[in-house]
Amino acid sequence: MKPMAHLGVGIGWRPEIADAVERLPGLDWAEVVAENICPGHLPEALLRLRERGVRLVPHGVSLGLGGADRPDPAKLAALGERAVALGAPLVTEHIAFVRSSSPALEAGHLLPVPRTRDALDVLCENVRIAQDALPVPLALENIAALFSWPGEELTEGQFLTELVERTGVRLLIDVANLHTNRVNRGEDPLAVLDAIPLEALAYVHVAGGVERGGIWHDTHAHPVPPAVLDLLAALRSRVDPPGVLLERDDDFPPEPELAAELAAVRAVVTAGPRLPADPGPAAGARDRHAAPDEATRTRVGLGQAALLSALVAGTPVPEGFDRMRIRVQSLALAAKRADVVARLAPELPGILGGAGPYRTAFLSYAKGRPMTAGYRRDALDFAEHLLIQDLPADQAARRRLTAWWRERAGARPPGRVVRWARALVGRAA
């Protein structure tokens, strides 16, 4: 496999820290959440980074290549457009599923795929479809998980190795996710590093999290712990990573703390002699296995739909899953929905009387109404749900919410007859 171009040490670019990122000393590159930018209207801060030679890489979160359905051509085209707009040397995504089509449900989060032969066959074909559609090479990230699937047939190392051998895809190894899975699923991160083809490494993610009640939450909102830096050092002892990137998505620290965290990552990466690159197998490996038949996709889809329905729609937890872990994941997904909708529609907490009343109302709404079409639609559906119930009780607030909904939905809010009919349907259900 042809060695990756050297990226160096970088940081995840977020609008909230755009000014701080521009001032970081010695920044080599930055990663951008692909869905958060528009190719024709890149933020000025990103354009300035690109002009001074900082490489930019789009990082997708919504393809769901581990899902039972084939990749959405429109989503693939959008990811490719962002790679071209940024002048990126590659694009990255996740080994995860994020939705089901029957029933139509959205997790709004990256969920683990079962490490089974069926799921691997589906993933490999989806990766090949994506590779053929994208204008630059693709790398895939291992994800963090709160729970395991029952009946898995492969270890993490075996799963990732076969994926690379069958598709030639690159790997984005997140050492923070390896730590998360050590705490939550009892998996040995060093065994994963020893098993996977490190010659396929595109780059590395480093991030922080927090442990609560024996569960590690991969928050990207806390400092990088020593255990994660130790795993970065362990990986560095095995291979010279082409790039290492610090992720921070929330609760951003003061600029000096951010710079110090990046410096700590750089110190680990640059410690010791540079290791010789292992060229590994020839590039362009392609899967000689037959493409999965529709029965295989159906089996994978049924399992994923049953799990996702339990997580977001309150249906029974499928046999073999840890019910406590599924409940924790379900609560985390609802909380994330509330947080993301509040960021996308910051007017809603204000209309509803503050963060507390907003959160209470949203979590009550989310219990019986799973997300089906993304967070922006979720915000509109939440507002409509309140209006149907003649909420909020304060008439002035209700008028403000009606105006907010009408401006964004481009329609009249539901009238009293419609509200009465929908309420009856809801009670009957």
Termini separation comes to 56 Å
Lateral arrangement of strands in the main beta sheet: 3-2-1-12-9-8-7-4
Helix proportion range: 40-55%
Mean pLDDT: 91
Structural class: alpha/beta
Largest sheet: 8 strands, parallel
Total of DSSP H or I helical runs spanning 4+ residues: 16
Task: Report the uncertain regions.
Answer: 416-429
Radius of gyration: 22 Å
DSSP strand content = 5-15%
Note the run of SSEs as H and E. Answer: EHEHEHEEEHEHEHHEEEHEHHHHHHHH
Q: How many beta-strand segments?
A: 12
| 3D shape | globular
Please give a quick description of this structure:
The protein has helices at 18-23, 44-51, 73-86, 117-133, 156-167, 175-185, 189-195, 226-236, 255-270, 294-312, 323-344, 347-351, 355-368, 375-388, 395-409, 416-428; strands at residues 8-13, 29-33, 55-59, 91-94, 97-101, 104-111, 138-141, 170-174, 201-206, 210-212, 215-217, 243-246. It has 429 residues and is α/β, with parallel strands linked by helices. Helix 6 packs across helix 8 and helix 8 (226-236) runs parallel beside helix 9.
